[in-house]
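Exercise 7.
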Amino acid sequence: MENRRFEERKEPEIVYSRSVKAGKRIYYLDVKKARNADLYLCITESKKKSGAEDEVPQFEKHKVFLYKEDFAHFTEGLNDVIEYVKNQVGDIEERPEWTPREEEPEAVETPVEEKHRRGLFGRLKKDN
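Solution. The predicted structure, written as tokens, is:
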């Protein structure tokens, strides 16, 4: 087997990306293309580490890779646990920074991005 050095590895191409700001965390939802041209989802949680104010900010990152053949099962499990939490605690209030203010217009995405989002995640909702 050929010995490959870490520096020579090519990072998978990101074909679509979306970020979700949640308080001190940011979640990146990246659709990547594997070497065999298959698509998969990479979910990255990025959280700023607390430290001295004069230090260069550092971030803690955690990744989860979700392959398309697992989307339906993952979505079913996620919806199940969300419903469980809602049944236990009642209504869940969204973070204020996620709710657009009336005087601020919502960010508008290009139609191509919207089409990709509906195509990837829209099918998951229809299956459930």
